């Protein structure tokens, strides 16, 4: 089941104060970027964030899951708690690297 655009816009609005938020459709699912860093992957209308030591203490009781077959385990982000989601996303955006730029094929 693919994600609904309404849900993507809801997630984006919940974390809007974390920085510059944009999203991109990828293979029927979405990646949400904050300040040009990929922070949240949304699959089947479930927002996931990468397991990272910077947010480990914040996500101790969080549900975990696999966003897609073959993926590593991720935390499921509760975006209904906007203040918490913004704090977590800001923390992740600080420690995650920018995506590597791809070289164009000639």
From TrEMBL:
<protein>
    <submittedName>
        <fullName>TfoX N-terminal domain-containing protein</fullName>
    </submittedName>
</protein>
């Amino acid at each position: 089941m693919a994600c609904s655009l309404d849900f993507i816009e809801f997630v984006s609005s919940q974390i809007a104060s974390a920085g510059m938020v944009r999203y991109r459709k990828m293979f029927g699912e979405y990646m949400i970027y904050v300040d040009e860093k990929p922070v949240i992957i949304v699959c089947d209308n479930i927002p996931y964030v990468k397991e990272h030591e910077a947010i480990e203490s914040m996500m101790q009781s969080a549900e975990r899951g696999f966003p897609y077959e073959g993926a590593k385990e991720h935390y499921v982000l509760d975006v209904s708690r906007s203040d918490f989601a913004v704090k977590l996303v800001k923390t992740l955006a600080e420690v995650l690297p920018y995506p590597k730029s791809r070289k164009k094929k000639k």
